[in-house]
């Protein structure tokens, strides 16, 4: 599919997911050769209507150059005229494109070496007829498109075979939030002002995403382990996902695989490696093959990132903490002699998971602090909450975390310090949260 048509589908995905009735399109898309029967069965298995519509649009982008006009044709034939007009208004007349550059584009032999020699002769026969055909695309012959779509080399992974995790259970699963705010004096760790704001936002957000949310506050190391063990021993067989959110101080620890640890309020820490291990496929059989998501907003790490200069085109206005007006709100949480006064306190640490179906999202890059505003909460959680609210209905989790990375990277503490979140993604499929109808 041409890039401009892909962008049209992506730009209008919200409307397509909301309004498209894919069940009316299956026969037409199969007859016109846009999808095979196996691919249509795969789309049907995605779940409810919205999930099927989303998967259909994603898979459509991987089809041949005529998939887009044939899709428009199917929309018109099934009475879904408003969606067809929505897409047509942003697309130049498709039928005019093959006629003009007939002789220029004709040497379609250039990309052929990418394929195996066995397929060259067949590909030439398949693709050459697509360009000089002068007939309008409003009544296209389906056979060239079938021939163009079908001959994929054996052994080459099909992008359209990427599946989505099943996420239609109600409730979707358990979400455990551990929010450590007030630390014992003997721990030598400061209280985490603003963390309750983060906790309230995430509790509301994951309830809206149809999770059973349980919040635990001010836990010692032993209590953190107890709650994770209890979550591990639950029967998750009727659920599709599990989420753990850690809001606390953190530190770097000696490790074999996963760097980073989260503190209890008693000053004793739990390695992130151990936190993820509670829910892996070996220790929690009822979550095997299901996504386990960990979101870590944990202070720790001594380095402050001052960033580097970029061109003005790369710079966008910061969402918070960038103006000099913020400098008197609080003091950075640190045992150093840094005397800079500011409202943003240092906050998080990263780690690396290896088990399948696990994603760990961290508020900052390993070795660097992250920032928490004592009045508004942390940059990471504030932006994560908003991105989930605005995009969960249409975008997968990986895409949304990339949005979070970008927006947090635009912030500055006192116009000096930067922050770069990141995630370690060992999911095997796309993950779409349930969205409110």
What does this protein look like?
This protein is α/β, with parallel strands linked by helices and 437 residues long. Among the domains are: 3-89, Death Domain, Fas (Orthogonal Bundle); 173-304 and 353-426, Rossmann fold, CATH 3.40.50.1460. It contains 15 helices and eleven strands. Strands 1, 2, 3, 4, 5, 6, 8 and 11 form an eight-stranded mixed sheet that branches. The radius of gyration is 26 Å and the shape is elongated. The protein starts with a helix and ends in a 12-residue tail after the last strand. Mean pLDDT is 74; it is low at 93-109, 112-161, 304-312, 317-343 and 347-354.
Annotation keywords:
single chain; 437 residues; alpha/beta; Death Domain, Fas; Rossmann fold; eight-stranded mixed sheet; three-stranded antiparallel sheet; 11 strands; elongated
Task: Specify the CATH class of the domain at 173-304 and 353-426.
Answer: Alpha Beta
Name the CATH architecture of the domain at 173-304 and 353-426: 3-Layer(aba) Sandwich
SS-based class: alpha/beta
> Total number of helical segments?
15
**Amount of beta strand:** 5-15%
The CATH topology of the domain at 173-304 and 353-426 is: Rossmann fold
What is the terminal separation in angstroms?
30 Å
Q: Uncertain spans, ≥5 residues at pLDDT below 50?
A: 93-109, 112-161, 304-312, 317-343, 347-354
**Envelope shape:** elongated
Report the order of strands and helices.
Answer: HHHHHHHHHHEHEHEEEHEEEEEHHE
Largest sheet: 8 strands, mixed
Task: Give average pLDDT, whole number.
Answer: 74
Radius of gyration: 26 Å
Overall helicity: 25-40%
* DSSP, total strands: 11
């Amino acid at each position: 599919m041409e890039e401009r048509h892909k962008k049209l589908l992506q730009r209008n995905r919200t409307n397509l997911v909301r309004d498209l009735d894919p069940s009316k399109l299956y026969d037409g898309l199969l007859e016109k050769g846009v999808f095979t029967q196996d691919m249509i069965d795969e789309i049907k298995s995605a779940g409810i209507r919205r999930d099927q519509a989303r998967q259909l649009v994603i898979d459509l982008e991987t089809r041949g150059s005529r998939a887009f006009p044939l899709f428009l044709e199917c929309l018109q034939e099934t009475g879904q005229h408003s969606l067809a007009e929505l897409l047509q208004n942003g697309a130049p007349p498709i039928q005019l494109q093959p006629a003009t550059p007939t002789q220029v584009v004709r040497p379609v032999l250039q990309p052929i070496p990418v394929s195996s020699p066995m397929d060259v002769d067949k590909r030439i026969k398949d693709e050459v007829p697509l360009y000089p055909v002068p007939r309008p695309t409003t009544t296209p012959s389906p056979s060239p498109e079938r021939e163009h779509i079908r001959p994929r080399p054996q052994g080459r992974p099909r992008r359209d075979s990427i599946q989505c995790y099943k996420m239609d259970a109600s409730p979707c699963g358990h979400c455990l939030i551990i929010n450590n705010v007030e630390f014992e004096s003997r721990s030598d760790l400061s209280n985490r002002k603003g963390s309750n704001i983060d906790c309230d936002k995430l509790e509301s957000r994951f309830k809206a995403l149809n999770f059973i949310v349980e919040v635990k506050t001010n836990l010692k190391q032993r209590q953190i382990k107890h709650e994770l063990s209890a979550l591990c021993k639950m029967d998750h067989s009727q659920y599709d996902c599990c989420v753990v959110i850690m809001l606390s101080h953190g530190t770097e620890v000696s490790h074999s695989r996963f760097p980073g640890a989260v503190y209890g309020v008693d000053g004793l820490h739990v390695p992130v490696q151990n936190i993820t291990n509670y829910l892996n496929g070996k220790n929690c059989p009822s979550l095997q093959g299901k996504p386990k998501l960990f979101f870590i907003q944990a202070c720790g790490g001594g380095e402050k990132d001052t960033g580097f200069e970029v061109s003005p085109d790369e710079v966008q206005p910061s969402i918070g903490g960038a103006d000099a007006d913020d400098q008197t709100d609080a003091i950075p949480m640190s045992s150093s002699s840094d005397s800079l006064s500011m409202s943003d306190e240092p906050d998080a640490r990263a780690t690396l998971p290896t088990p399948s179906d696990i994603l760990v999202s961290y508020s900052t890059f390993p070795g660097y602090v992250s920032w928490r505003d004592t009045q508004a909460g942390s940059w990471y959680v504030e932006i994560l909450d908003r991105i989930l609210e605005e995009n969960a209905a249409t975008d997968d989790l990986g895409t949304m975390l990339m949005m979070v990375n970008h927006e947090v990277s635009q912030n500055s503490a006192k116009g000096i310090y930067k922050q770069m979140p990141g995630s370690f993604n060992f999911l095997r499929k796309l993950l779409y949260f349930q969205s409110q109808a």
